[in-house]
User: Fold these one by one.
Assistant:
Number 1:
Amino acid sequence: MILEITTFDHPALRARGARISEITDRIRSIAADMIETMRDADGLGLAAQQIGLPLQMFALDVSQMKNRPSAMWIDGRPTDFESLMPLVLMNSEVETFGDLLVEGEGCLSFPELSADIPRPFSVRVKALTLEGVILEFEADGLLARAIQHELDHTRGILFIDRAVEDDRNAFPPDIRRLMRSIS
Ligand code: ZN
């Protein structure tokens, strides 16, 4: 089912997600709705907060973005990440590394808005999948950026909070009001 995406000042967007202790039918159903909603909106990712649920859960699909490459390694071996998409990750533990790269980002919860966001180029991830297994991998590029963006959502952090100063200053007043400092 395609769900309404929460936007701007919706309180769910500032809610920290709860851990998911078990893959139940409800979790599987939420995941299916998140994937459907993400695809309908042409998004690269969607977090549970964006459908109003405070959970540590997000969906990703970067397989269509040929002009912004991604890479993934499992056990140190290059992995065909496209075959894993759409991917739903829960309870993600993410370690970032590599150079800090400033690139443009958008967000389905902030239609029409884009901003330059500095983020490390690479991530090391340990997360629960819908199959109930722990998936460990490393990723680079757009996939690493999308994971960091979605992980932020599950902690109530938004991309506007991380925008470079020039972009923050250029945001319209109603967006500036929603920005929070990251401690
Ligand atoms: Zn977003």
Number 2:
Amino acid sequence: MNKTAKLELDGKVYELPTLVGTEGEKAVDISTLRQQSGYITLDDGYANTGSCKSKITFIDGEKGILRYRGYPIEVLAEKSTFVETAYLLIYGELPTANQLKRFSSLLTQNEMLHEDLKYQFEGFPAHGHPMAILSAMINACSCFDPELMEPYNPAIFELEAARLISKVRTIAAFAYRKSRGLPAIYPKPTYKYTENFLHMMFSEPYQDYELRKEVVQALDMVFLLHADHEQNCSTSTVRMVASSRANLFASCAAGVCALWGPLHGGANQAVLEMLKSIHASGDDGSRFIAEAKDKKSGHRLMGFGHRVYKNYDPRAKIIKAKCDKLLAALKISDPLLDIAKKLEETALKDSYFIERKLYPNVDFYSGIIMRALGIPVEMFTVIFAIGRMPGWIANYKEVMDDPASRIYRPRQVFVGPAPRDYVPIDQRK
Ligand code: CMC
């Protein structure tokens, strides 16, 4: 039996129910507080607000634990693939061989874009950021298929989800080719998900890109590690948009926009730019660390710190180990990896970072892997978005399948002006 919380306000005691999650996370349910007392709760940046109950992903930020549907991220990174993990996130269980075959063939059947979409790509300037193109094109894509613009329909959801996961990869590769003035490369049905993405990015009409096993595996793992991360900024955005009963493509296009910001998915690009500028300036990182600690400098140590993790981000640990292995296998020596390691070592010994529990997050080393794979820096956040798509879709489905789900509509505490008289323009000072 869950306990009841008691809150005393203006001499009255209010009883509020509490609940405990599977992993012992405790919450006070304040949903009737305003109705009972006239008070709302205020929580800037939602740092202490549970916006929903979810069965998808569990994070223990103090211990550095991340699990998708109960499976530790370390186990999935070692044993699973991105496509299998996508299925797990969306449908709740690891697929049987037949389910995986069906899901994979749906991805293959839906990998092409409507040919008329090429006119949309042509409309973007060459320097257009691929995140802007990605978000616009996800919405544009749905216009070519009236079914996709309908509100949630469980009967066609499987097809819609497969379409989105498959097409987002084609859009991303086409956006990159367009930005380089290169001809679009069409997907090959014989290739698996990540192979096909690399093919569409790097093949030429006259020559196929050579698919190296270690490269395909590394990128597949990067997608998998980004596949979900509970109620982060972009996933909350997807749920917020979905709660208005917007369609899957519109909800996930909004997720792309939220992800773009440098405090969220855009941090992987920002990390690499930071490492490059440290390298170019000849600094070994110590000057940059000093700046990152100085609030007036406007700089932060990008790829460090996390709202939830107050310990090493488990994804960063996996990526760091993969970085070493991949660079050795590809015989690449990257001075930026040395700078990143030095920065990490220095920061982890520094009282500023220790006291604030700031550790490397997923973005700190992911850029080094992507650079080694030949992915251009402006595509880093796009890779994150491709990876995060199954998590957004799973969260969208969770909102839609919940019969009790309501439109997300937070309240506010208004601190602006009290009522005042309208002053005609000629009398204003
Ligand atoms: N460098 C220097 N100081 C930092 C950093 C950093 N990277 N991150 C946090 N701090 C300081 C911050 O100034 C504050 O100090 P004080 O208590 O003296 O005012 C304290 O640590 C707490 O920071 P906060 O901004 O209140 O923490 P938050 O939970 O609101 O923000 C964060 C989390 C991830 C936005 C922030 O740590 C940050 O800006 N990190 C750099 C950007 C980054 O790497 N983002 C990727 C996040 S992981 C992947 C993803 O979500 O997409």
